[in-house]
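idk why but the lab printer keeps eating my pages so im just putting this in chat instead. protein + flavin-adenine dinucleotide:
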Amino acid sequence: MRRIVVVGASLGGLRAAEQLRAAGHAGELVVVGDEPHPPYNRPPLSKEVLAAEVALDRVAFRTRASVADADWRLGTAVTGADLAARVVRLADGTEVSYDGLVIATGLRPRRLDAPGQDPGAGPSRHVVRTLDDAAALRARLKPEVRLAVVGAGFIGCEVAATARTLGADVTVVAPESEPMLRPLGADFGAELRRRHQRRGVRFLLGRTVARFTGTGLELSDGTSVDADVVVEAVGSVPCVEWLEGNGLDLSDGVLCDGALRVEGRPDVVAVGDVARFPNPRYDDVPRRVEHWSIPTDTAKHAARSLLGENGRPFMPLPSFWSDQYDLRLQSFGAPALGGGDIRLLEGDLSEEAVLGYHRDGRLVGVVMLGCGGSLPRYRKLLLDDTRVPTS
Amino acid sequence: MKVIVDMDRCQDHGQCVFSAPEVFRLDGAGRLEFESAPDDALREAVEEAADVCPLQAITVED
Ligand SMILES: Cc1cc2nc3c(=O)[nH]c(=O)nc-3n(C[C@H](O)[C@H](O)[C@H](O)COP(=O)(O)OP(=O)(O)OC[C@H]3O[C@@H](n4cnc5c(N)ncnc54)[C@H](O)[C@@H]3O)c2cc1C
Ligand code: SF4
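predcted complex ->
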């Protein structure tokens, strides 16, 4: 291929560019990203980077020498694409044609759809996805500041933990009955909540935000929450608008086949958080997976698909971690698929523990609270599962 | 090939161990140990280990 264009210059885009080189693409590589920064690591944004100012080079990704000669168009959004004509349009008005296209545009935070916020009045509203978001929030996280975190998923929980450690007064508001309920289940969620509560975080669960007020939030049950700062951690939306008009299924990210090719387009692949692909390790349902391990895994496979190789079936073992206070939570496999049958495999939830998530009696995911030493054993158990198709 | 791990950054995630067990291992206490001058034949595995390190603590030099 003469020219391959990668849209999105974060983990997925960077790894795709590197893997294209590793797989033998010697032609032109153009990487277009709307953020002004070179690719950097997002997990620290709700942890170290929120706690203290950190230089960009502490979070920038290590990049392979092979992509130094790529044409990096940073600070430039792609506004549209014509997949039949093989061309993408950039915000600066230029068009770039391609022989191969990699979609790596990831997600952006969903915003709260609640009325009542006059510009400049009421609490200052934040999300955490980019370095600039984290810097803006950090500037507000002084001791004693009243912070309301809306959403009790992993980003909400991590922001709550970091802010509490900095001395903020933290309230978590969420519709679920426990934090991280969907991926981890009720017992694990309850334990996590108790650990936050012991450190002084308040939880207002089972309710949503009805509106913003001059002094904070009013919730669906009428409770008012005083807040100087509100963090909206209520999930994400795939960045796919630029692909509209091409007849693709964009209902939840970009629908791909098992080789990460965009259906009907052998010259287009998708990687990372935005890609919706089946994982035969579990079933044939295409899903998006918002885990740090996935951009690297998908990039490796998608690069080869784009260059025309028909490799082995793609069946990554997703892995995820979260740091809250001194807790390390690690997840392997797909615990969310096994939420109906959760078993304690080791330890005690009130200290350190390993939980197994089962579907139809089969172990499909493992979540560890501490117990780091047991990690290789459980990972191997999941990888060696003989029910996984191998050809 | 030279492998450098920034031990201030490393949080003993152990992901590198899965990619290049010949070069990286966790000791009995779960702390990272590694070979700083591995054989060139292991380059792709080492590059992969550096890719998957969540803290991006590993650098590879020629
Ligand atoms: C605060 C935070 C903490 C996290 N912590 C963890 C953790 O502890 N553990 C874990 O496993 N995972 C964690 N994750 C998830 C992990 O960071 C993601 O899975 C990963 O960043 C996905 O990479 P990606 O390249 O697919 O997408 P993204 O990182 O979202 O990158 C997409 C890039 O494309 C750009 N873009 C979008 N639209 C356009 C356009 N039209 N034109 C040009 N560029 C565009 C975006 O600006 C962005 O730079 C965390 C994520 C966040 C936000
Ligand atoms: S993957 Fe990174 S953080 Fe984990 S043990 Fe290896 S070097 Fe350390």
